[in-house]
Design a protein that fits this description.
With 98 residues, the protein is mainly α. Helices cover 68% and strands 0% of the residues.
Amino acid sequence: MIEEIEQQDGFQEGVLSKAKAANWKAMNSYTHSGFYQSGRRVKEKTIEANYKEEEIIDLLEFSDAIGMLTALQIALMAGNVELANDLFQRFKAELKRP
């Protein structure tokens, strides 16, 4: 699907395929009971969620970016350039936050 999308105007830069390449292995491991998911559920004496704060932040930031890109593209597909510009400005502001 990504290959087909990246043949469309505005997607030739390969942002989606780069995001997939950088995150696919870990996302599959979390989703399909792989090492990442299993390893993050074991504490010293219990079995429960044991995610590092950085991992949670990384996942939330990745999800936020995908959500913002999706909203931006929907606005463009709907022909609402004003909304697309507003979303883009918000997205840029979020990227600058520490």
